[in-house]
Amino acid sequence: MWWLEGFRSGMGRLEILLLVYTLLCSLGDCLFVTDYFTRTPRKLNAYRSFASVELFHFNVPEDTVVAVWNLITFKEQGGTFGDSCPDRNVTVYFRSGAPPVINPLQTRFPKDTIVPGSFAVTLTWTLPNRTTGVFNVTSPLPGDWFLAAHLPKDEGKISVKGLHEECQYLFQPQLIVQRLIGISVLYPGYFIDQMIPLHNRSVLYKVFIPNYISRVKVQLVDCNTKNRSGESCPVLLKIRSRAPPVHNSSAMDCRENVPCDLEVPLPSWEQWYYILVERYLSSSDVYFRIGVQVKDCSKPSVSKGSSAMNMPQSFGTAMGFSLSETLPAASLPNVPQNASDQGSLLTAEDSITYLAPTADTNKCWPVRPTLRNELDTFSVHFYIFFGPNISIPPDRAAIFAINLMPVLDSGGVLNMELKLNVSSVRGENITIFGCLNHGMPLSLHDNTSVSCESESVSGFHLSINTTTNITKLRIPYPQTGTWYLSLRSLCATEHGFEMCTNVTAEVYLRSYLTPCINDCGTYGQCKLLRTNNYLYAACECKAGWDGWGCTDNTEAYSYGFQLLSTLLLCLSNLMFVPPVTIAIRSHYLLEASVYIFTMFFSTFYHACDQPGIVVFCIMEYDVLQFCDFLGSLMSVWVTVIAMARLKSIIKQVLYLLGAMALSMALQLDRHGLWNLLGPSLFALGIMAIAWTVRTIRRRRCYPPTWKRWVFFLFPGTTIATSAVALYAFVETEENYFYIHSIWHMLIAGSVGFLLPPRAKPDVKVTPLKRRRGCGYQLCVNEHEEMGLVDPAIITINSICTS
What is the pLDDT of residues 574-593, one digit of tens each? Predict the structure, then answer.
């Protein structure tokens, strides 16, 4: 039973525990313990693929009757509460046994892919910076539980790191479980006297079902109330595998059925079954005798077909022990040791009765195990003994077991491939049907049914024939445990499918585990992710492709579009050719070499950085990216320093120091805002100081000519400012290829305008010619300055020229 209880801010742990206590008071004497689990808050991301979700792993103990997830979401901005951040819905998915397979964008899954179900909850905001949701699960399945959370898909804007305080949405799940202790254990074949007191509403039992059990029947007999009057039994009988029963579990109303029997055909093997006896409203105690009967199919009556199955007879019980081996009669006191070998009803005491299990006429056929070969993480092959070619006899099913390890294997993809050898069927119109089930094999009887579902178990269907002799099946994030593949050959007739006669089909079977589906194809990358100690894999798609295996081409880029975007990003760097020419003609050789370096590595970096198939890499991607970023920053640095018109030695020292400082900054953070803004501001500060000194010395504005300001500095500054604005505020993932190309052209164009003209050569400064007119000239003898004559004797000559 699943439901969303509600979302309320400020719901504390006390209120949750009160809610849990209310739910548990209907289960006997309310003997339970409380366990509390929490996880560290994590930042949520907008959904793009499963690689962008945050995955949380919990473990629910056995005998848990209720699990309460407290879902806490809050906002942060700049280390404080993000009251001004917009409200964005948070979607949380729940699944037992393996991570949830989600599809919020409604994309297409790869062919032959099975999509397991999951439960989703959307959290809405009740406070400006915080919201809390409660999700209750009554009688959850024990073991691994996974939560996946994400934000809605955004518009794909590329933001500059550090430009503004980013709104962060943090999510923290907490789990509170209540589990019963001291649940009464029933043993198959034993009947015990029980009662439901007046102050209790129900009583809970559990029984373990081993391998090779074809049917389970719960019997409730000798039911009466305290006064021993009345013929009806006022109780409701329920049963469920792995967890206590819920409202939609298999049930039987004992008021209308005497004796009260509840059967479960094809039960799950090696699992606990929980039995709930719930009484209706009455004013007296209820007495009854309860027991569990099973049908054992572990011992075939004949050993026929062992050679046809290509396996030794001992493999028939390789997957576990039968009932007689797991539940000896000596496990219960006061029961004779030979009780299990007798077919009649034996009584040790009045309160305990033993009835030997009955044999099933439809024998369970041997289950062939598989050999597990681990090659790498999520790279496992399951080899069949005496395979991979297997023989399917006409009169029975061939059953194979594949065991997936807990936690280790649930983060990959289970692949199954079948191929029919057409020559082996000798022209018969034969079809091989397969059922892949978790927990128990489904094809146990010699009939012509091709369904892979029962009352309690549903599986996945496969089929091959002489026309379509190959089939595949993929299950992303499979549940761990034992998977059973049952193969059966049937012949098509006018009246449907019938059992074949004297035709043994040969089938090639391949089963293996991979990280991703087809390694995410041409337009995807398979990423190995980790959440705490749990590993899982997911595809990250590119070039507009989408879907779980990057096979949905609804919004995919065409080859022409990929080629156009690559050419634009690469050829736009040719705009650096004019600045290089200007720098060489102006004798700025160091600056020209930096521009050539930038043009070269920017071209080949963008040729290697493309998401599609139009990709060309001359060296490692990381090296190209570092050189491109370094060249871009050095181009800005040397241009602004050159505009300062410093002495040659000072300029060269600043170039060298800038290259070393920028290399260090790029190693620390290549995408930070201050990597571009810091060197630019520092260089502009040097330039401003140099220009101010020249202005003060010359007592006129520097640069001195208005043409330099109007036709060079102002256009260059405007172009550079426009480029920075496009880069910081306009660029998105969709318009990246042409906005970034414009950025290349604008930056290169601004360099051509801002680079100063050629510096004049250094010459000896001569005194300025005086204008003609009257004046005085102070004549100083060289000997006077050297102190060789009397400084009081100074001659002043009058100069009068016309």
Answer: 999 999 999 999 999 999 99
